[in-house]
Amino acid sequence: MRMPEHLKPVVVLSRCLDLEPVRYDGQVVPYDFVRQLEPWVEYRPVCPEVEIGLGVPRDPIRIVELHGRAHLIQPDTGADYSEDMKSFADEFLNSLGAVDGFILKSRSPSCGIKDTKIFQGSHEKAPSTRGAGFFGARAKELYPGLAVEDEERLRDYMIREHFLTKLFSLARFRSVKGGGSMRRLAHFQSVNELLLMAYNQKEMRTLGRIAANSGNKPFAELIGDYERHLQAAFKRAPRYTSVINVLQHAAGYFTRQLSSEEKAIYGSSLDKYRTRQVPVSVVSSILRSWIVRFGEEYLATQTFFDPYPATLIA
Questions:
Q1: Are 232 and 225 in contact (CB under 8 A)?
Q2: Coil, strand or helix at 116
Q3: How many whole angstroms separate alpha carbon 117 and alpha carbon 131?
Q4: Alpha-carbon gap, residue 120 to 44, rounded angstroms
């Protein structure tokens, strides 16, 4: 199932990532992926530090833990922006409406999602631990099931594949959820069967039971349950062994039609994926060519082979 042309995932994006020079030093962070993704998504740019009134350029801020509580401090002025940032984060995040994911600035005291320095004291050389920034932490708290990453982690092709698969899958589901149709939900479940099998077979079976709706429940009564289990299915990147099982299952559809040379090429690509030398898209592209060549109708419907726009493939 290809993504409808009119539907784009909604992505909250740190404004400093290749958009505007709003960093504390007045610079912009070059990041080609923002431009690569731009035609396919709707960005909601934000710079929390500018939004709470800090200028560009500005004295840096940092997270300082005092008496067991995190504070957002500007060391050069001694100003504490903790409450300002908390208020802005709540106001902005609670007013977003439809949203499918976040791409936030790594290591930022506002936007960081896991690698921001948290200083254990106010003096300059205080030791530090790592955690989320004020805005990033609140985003993860309010939207725990969405696709949330920072730009540094997205440079890893396996993390990027998972992020894009989750992002576009959730956007497709959002369209189904808004449609209110059991038929569309059943179709969504059907075309995502192999993708869910690769990600989480337990959740796949649970989702299948919900979509089958043997109790004839109203759509509004079961869609929330389906959404929770769908987000749980995409919580973590799939194990490569599970992905390989799906790839081998799909290849089995073509066993009798292929030459020994074609099988050898496929096997070599599968081994390279197994040893993390290539992304899964390299292997699935071979299968996609066979699906078209042999007109395999069931596999042609599966989002596993087309989870996001081909131009975004690593």
A1: no
A2: strand
A3: 7
A4: 33
User: Can you tell me the distance from the alpha carbon of 293 to that of 153, in angstroms, rounded to the nearest whole number?
Assistant: 36
Of 312, 313, 157, 164, which is closest to residue 234 (Cα–Cα)? 164
Overall average pLDDT of the 121-141 stretch: 93
* Residue 178: partners with Cβ closer than 8 Å, 6 or more residues away: none
Residue 39: asked if its preceding bond is cis (omega within 30°), the reply is no
Bridge-based pairing of strands 42-46 and 116-119 is unpaired
Q: Is residue 276 helix, strand or coil?
A: coil
Do the bridges between strand 79-80 and strand 147-150 make them parallel or antiparallel, or are there none, so unpaired?
unpaired
Q: How far is CA 213 from CA 193, 206, 219, 220, 225, in A?
A: 16, 11, 9, 12, 12
Question: Is residue 182 scored above 70 in pLDDT?
Answer: yes
CA quadruple 287, 288, 293, 299: dihedral, nearest 10? 90
Encode pLDDT of 265-312 as tens digits. Answer: 999 999 999 998 988 989 999 999 999 999 999 999 999 999 999 899
Measured distance CA(259)–CA(38) in Å, rounded = 41
Gap between the Cα atoms of 277 and 216, Å rounded: 47
Tabulate helix, strand, coil % of the chain (nearest 5): 50, 15, 35
Mean predicted confidence (pLDDT) in 70-79: 95
Cα distance between residue 281 and residue 283, in whole Å = 5
Task: Provide the pLDDT confidence category of residue 123 given band limits of 50, 70 and 90.
Answer: confident
Q: Is 10 helix (H, G, I), strand (E, B) or coil?
A: strand
Q: How far apart are CA 120 and CA 289, in angstroms?
A: 55
Largest CA distance in the chain: 73
pTM exceeding the 0.85 threshold for the entire prediction: yes
Mean pLDDT for 186-198 is: 97
252-279 per-residue burial string, b: 16 or more CB within 10 A, e: under 16: eebeeebeeeeeeebeebbeebeeeebb
